[in-house]
Prior knowledge:
The structure holds two protein chains of two kinds. Chain A has helices spanning about 40-45, 70-75, 90-100, 105-115, 130-145, 160-175, 190-195, 210-220, 240-255, 265-275; strands spanning about 1-10, 15-25, 30-35, 55-60, 65, 75-80, 150-155, 180-185, 195-200, 205-210, 225-230, 235-240, 255-260. Chain A is an alpha/beta fold. The model of chain A has no long low-confidence stretch (mean pLDDT about 90). The longest helix of chain A has 16 residues, at about 160-175. In chain A, strand 9 and strand 10 form a beta hairpin. Chain A folds into two domains: about 1-210, Rossmann fold, CATH 3.40.50; about 220-260. Chain A starts with a strand and ends in a 6-residue tail after the last helix. In chain A, the strands form three sheets. A six-stranded mixed β-sheet of chain A has the order 6-7-8-3-9-10, sandwiched between helices. Chain B is mostly helical. Chain B has one domain. Chain B is about 80% helix and about 0% strand. Chain B contains ten helices and no strands. The mean pLDDT of chain B is about 90. The interface of A and B includes residues 50, 73, 93, 97 and 98 of A. Bound molecules: adenosine-5'-diphosphate and magnesium ion. Magnesium ion (MG) binds near residues 40, 41 and 154 of chain A.
Amino acid sequence: MIQAMNISKSFNGKKVLDKITMEARDGEIFGLLGPSGAGKTTLIRVLTGQLQFEEGDAFVMGKSVKELKGKDKKQFGIMMDDFGLYDRLTCYQNLRVFADVYGVNDEDIYEVLKEVRLEGAEKKEASKLSKGMKERLRLARAFLHRPKVLFLDEPTSGLDPQTANEIHDMILKRKNDGCIIFLTTHNMHEAEKLCDRLVLLNDGHIVEEGAPQELCLRYDHQKRIQVVMKDGRTRDYSFDEKSGEEIGRIIGSGNLLTIHSKEPTLETVFMELTGRRLEV
Amino acid sequence: MNEARAVLKKQMIDTRKNKAVLIQFILFPVMTIVMTLLVKMDDMPEFFYLKLFSVMYLAMAPITSMSAIISEEKEKGTLRALMMSDVSGAAYLLGIGLYDFFCCMACTVLMSRVCGLEGDVWRDYLWIMAMGFLISIVLGSAIGVLSKNQMNATSLSVPIMCVFSFLPMIAQFNSTVEKIAKFFFTEQIYLALNREKSVKMDIEGISIVMANAILILIFFILAYRKEGLKKN
Lengths: 280, 232
Ligand SMILES: Nc1ncnc2c1ncn2[C@@H]1O[C@H](COP(=O)(O)OP(=O)(O)O)[C@@H](O)[C@H]1O
Ligand SMILES: [Mg+2]
């Protein structure tokens, strides 16, 4: 379990995290969705004991992050932008360094390489990898010692959709193996696809929380249904009896092409709550 | 210990491909060997090139290599990843420092042997060089710890390294400089290496080298307290 209780953190007098309270449960992917500058990376730093903070406390697996020892940190897998790779070392050698620290054997290194689909590239120097491959190598490093808790800071940011999808699958696989995964993103599709629960973070404040679908339903004020007909016409209906009759008639006439309820997306929920967009 | 070993092993592999650091280790030894074997002049003192370049080597190689290695790891964020996997600052510095020391000593043993040092003189020469390397390694670490990136490290290490390596050279020709140079460990090592027939350090020399070692250690501790390896 990962818990934050009333965490506040300032940089140079400016509040970057303001009374953050949240809880990620075992076995779930917990998301932190917010635009750039919201404080996502800062919160990961706090939760992993890399950054001191003024107020509140946070606990990972029952232990205060202020008192994290080396042994505790070895249970974390962390992937963030500023955790670099050794450019001149190969994929294998990059993992070997950390495997030596964690006491992981060769067989497991190759297994992780396979898991992130870098088998065959193990002898390639890190500096010669594509962006997507680098990202996967960093993911491999986070997975290497089979940690129970994973912190992934925008794991697919700037990647092409196909690589992003591959990485999503790798993350979901870790979840199925029982990891607790704390993930940040500014991409609502990613959040919707991966997260069991999430919080919306804006300017250091949590503005809303819940399961993605539940959130969208909660903010579905208009409750509209969109009907597209075979002759190309599109019509909106509300949730009432009269609309039901009309939609029934369209279905009966065989003219119906598609029918959808129009709940808001996470982006529109975020817009409604903050007046800001997630991505600019 | 596991952690220090992992770091040392990493550095062994990395240096093979890192020409900027590699050249620091082999430049002076290669120059010494080549000059000794090829450029002979009449009535040249014995071990002329070895004595000339040894002090430059011990002032330059550890300072530039240590600061370059540490600052690059800071800049690229590999150090941060190591620290989060529970490699302590001490284990990290021990790993890199030991590696640096072994490289310098191995090259020193080789070049002095090829130049023909042997017996007691060789032994004393190696002891004094080892002491000098250790002091330089601590100084190089302090610079690396203080620097946020490689640019930073270079702009600090170059002037410091120049002072320690060139003072003994200039002191030979200028008595004013000699009076100041006396207080630097590299000058004392230079003097010890350049005695007739033996390599020895007198009490004054030993005291000055010790004083240097203590001051540099204090500088290192202050740097480590201020910046550490985990900050930023
Ligand atoms: N080390 C730091 N010093 C000063 N300000 C910082 C520092 N780290 C982050 N910030 C500021 O904190 C805010 C949140 O940053 P960050 O957590 O990186 O946001 P996100 O990861 O959501 O994009 C930003 O306004 C950023 O400028
Ligand atoms: Mg960020």
